[in-house]
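Quick one: structure for this chain?
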Amino acid sequence: MTHENLFILKNLSKRFVKGKETISIFDGLDMTIPKGDFLAIMGPSGSGKTTLLNLLGGVDQPTGGEVIFDGERVDSLSESQLTKWRANNIGFIFQFYNLMPMLNAERNVELPLLLTNLSSKERMQRVHTALKLVGLEDRAKHMPSEMSGGQLQRVAIARAVVSDPKLLLCDEPTGDLDRQTADEILQMLQLLNRDFGKTIVMVTHDPAAARYASRTLHLDKGQFVEKEQLMEKSA
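Got it. Here's what it folds into:
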């Protein structure tokens, strides 16, 4: 059975307990993410953008509601089941790259594959394919300290796609880059979405970055709002 939506969130709630205070991030949030979507999520600090990414990526679990991925409930998986699920389905791209400084480019890209049953030869084949995709096959042996910010983010993208995940979660992927380099990275994300069918969810503060996405949703205080409403509240 095939499902048109990759993600469905139903009546999602997320609360944190801080001392004697309970902080509600989401309360009854609903959303769908179709397969092949390139979604940008914008909103002020504290609106729940990163928390939402963590819930989509199985890094955090909801307090209530349902998280359905490709027709299957994932909100009730155990930690070990979530680890396997993430390895098979999710690629993460972060603002500050999160590369291991003591590993060269190809070893950083290989990291997600260490959770698989692939042989060392098969892992290296995938690594070199991913590095070629982002135009860094000639930098495979370079250390992070020997690369520019744009190159570091390209390595991070190669690491995110090396396991051929269904979904890429991007948390401010261009926030540490100049405009020209940021545009190059965003064009690469567009290519992954358009030519390789990757579903992408990108959190960004940058309207110029959001324009590369197929659609944009605005979060405010844990709920999706119209852009005009958000502007009125910030005025």
